[in-house]
Amino acid sequence: MTVGELNALGTAEASDALTAVCGSPAWVSRMLARRPWADGQSVLRDAEECWRAIGQAAQRTVIAHHPRIGSAATAAKTGARAQAWSQGEQAAANASDDESRALLAAANAGYEKRFGHPFIICATGLSSADILHALNERLHNDDATEQVATAEELRRIMRLRLLHLLSHA
After folding, report:
1. What's the whole-model pTM score?
2. Domain-wise residue ranges, the chain
3. How buried is residue 139: exposed, middle or buried, by Cβ count under 10 Å (0-12/13-18/19+)?
């Protein structure tokens, strides 16, 4: 969709489109308040500013909109657009062999036990081995460091999805 088409959507439709990008109601509300946008760069700039404004308090809500690596299920209800994006983002991990998927599931369970939420990574273009390596590295983080790392991965996913929204009908 173009920026003009996003601007022209009704509030409910624009909210649905932006919720597929980022599952934070606070982020979506802030983005809606900034319409209309002049161009894609202003949408991206506002998205980053709104992300920083919602801070880490909204992180759990956003995490609930992302499936565990290697899974299609999310903790929160998501639309078809967000589900399709998740499947595409995790395509390489989902295409791995049974042993790799089992290793990833076990590591993710350990991560979730340690940090209280599923492992989040911008998985686009990453193999299951890449994801497993990053997961094992981040298991060594302290809570504060991991919260920052998770927030950055969520921001990267938000930006990628916003670019998908603005480049696909």
Report:
1. 0.81
2. 3-60, 66-153
3. middle
Find tokens 């946008």 and name the residue: 37
Percent above pLDDT 70 for the chain: 82
Summarised one tens digit per residue, pLDDT across range 49-70 is 999 998 777 888 888 777 777 5
Task: Report which residue type is found at 110.
Answer: G
Quote the tokens at residue 34: 């900034």
Tell me: pLDDT of 83 over 60. no
CATH label, 66-153, candidates 3.40.640.10, 1.10.3330.10, 1.20.950.20, 1.10.10.10: 1.10.3330.10
Q: Are 86 and 72 in contact (CB under 8 A)?
A: yes
Identity of the amino acid at 125: G
